[in-house]
User: What shape does this take?
Amino acid sequence: MALAARLEPRLPAAPPPGGSPGGCMPAPAPPVGWPDGRAPSPRGGAPVADQAPFPLDLEWKRERRLWGPALHPMCSYLAAFPAGLPHAFIARYTRPGDVVLDPFSGRGTTPLQACAEGRIGVGNDLNPLAHLLTAAKVDPPGPAELGRRVDDLEAGWAARPAPAAWPSRGDDVTGSASGVPPEVVLAFHPRTLEQLAYLRAVLDPAGRVDRFLLATIAGILHGRGRAFLSTLMPNAFAMPPGYVREYARATGFHPEPRDVFAALRLKTQWLLREPLPPARGIAILGDARDAGTRTAAILRERALPGRVRLVVSSPPYLRVVRYGAANWLRLWFLGIDPGGLDARLDHAHRPRAYLAFLREVLADLRVVLADDAVVVLVLGDVESDGGHRLRREVGLAARAWEEAAEPEGYRLAGIAADEVAAHRKSTRIWGDEAGQATRTDRLLVIAPTELGRRRALAGAALPVDWRWPPEPRAGVVVAATQRTGQPPRPAGPRPGIVVVSGGGSPGAPGARAGVPVADGAGRGAGPAGQGRR
Ligand SMILES: C[S@@+](CC[C@H](N)C(=O)[O-])C[C@H]1O[C@@H](n2cnc3c(N)ncnc32)[C@H](O)[C@@H]1O
Assistant: This one.
């Protein structure tokens, strides 16, 4: 179905919570909390993190910012984690052919990383933008097929109906008949907007190639630099419409012409510069509360391994990001109502409701977990609520264990704390206090059984190979699996995969492939500004 049929552009009325980029956030309160900065256990006594620290070296923090497959930075996404984080667990706790699930997949970091390492990456999210990005990444087209489609689209554009039927000036598409919101018109040069309107009408998100193009356009829609179609807003999020109007007026913003087809070619060539991931993954649009059940059904339908060996996921942060409001321009392009989306997503809960929500998610996940599965939840220990500084941390990971995971029969392997440097948080763009929204991420590592808990602990100390892209040997696997479309069979040692001797589970201590080499040699940032997250 053509995308235009579902287009009902509507703009959010209010700026995103957590503060608007216009500096509306209140001034940070002086730091408060416990003298040693640790959250106490909700049950009293020593902090849970101290009782069961997970013995993991957070080595991904030493890697370069864009470590990992070229497809990751397709589109900026607030609160995405770095690709190295899932890699640290995929390499330790899974083998090629295993299923790796993220019930809150966001822009698809975990499932893409899993596919890139020959696992079956499954990503579920309730946000259609997240679903589009995940789907585009876990089942990308080849560069030749994609290039042909862009050529055809450009030819279709050139042969479009005469201006009487298709307005040739930007002003002409701003009328109520076209339904293009005035803030969208402000953002783009008239010709660029015409091209975007054409593409949004003809691209079909049900098709693999068109989906990839839609996701790519979402990524280059706005940002600072020549690679972006509008320079009115930063790349990470869209400024609120009211702010946009005021900003454009105050600065006399005049959009420069950009050719969408040229920009698309440049960006897709950059994204597809490496061999495609050796395994195809699965993207599911749905609520995380039944992601386990739906994943089990889909794996069964496709005759894939029926159980998930690893979950690496970051549930929504507490009242930090509103994905609809923060992405209203991308959502306009995709024909999604931002307000409706924000009403559906579970990012506005108070802690008690949030923990009840998480408990439901974990309860349903059990149906699809392998007995020895490992589950890693990255939980931001929020220090602000809707832009207001909290008097103390919520202690979310400890409470998630005690109020959501333990009651569902999970076993605790431990909690690792990740002190996030404020300057590296994507929310930093909101102002001085941005990084304080979640200054500490905690990794809650749990398992459905004692077997899984032991495997989680035994694997934590295994060294991991950090070379990327993989060595030529892995390229051979890539070519073979792309032809058959099948996930790879368990293979011998190759970079990026921990291999264990003695036929044991991958989590057991043993031999490994390759030598850990931290790849500090950056691959560059791509076409101007496109390497940015
Ligand atoms: C912190 S983000 C995950 C980011 C992801 N780890 C990445 O690297 O891109 C949390 C995600 O939860 C999603 N979400 C919120 N409520 C949900 C629900 N009820 N079911 C599924 N996904 C939901 C949001 O759309 C968002 O993508």
Observations:
- The first helix runs from residue 48 to 51.
- The CA atoms of residues 104 and 125 lie 5 Å apart.
- Residues 77, 79-81, 104, 106-107, 109, 125-127, 130, 287-288, 314, 316-317, 323, 345-347 surround S-adenosylmethionine (CB under 6 Å).
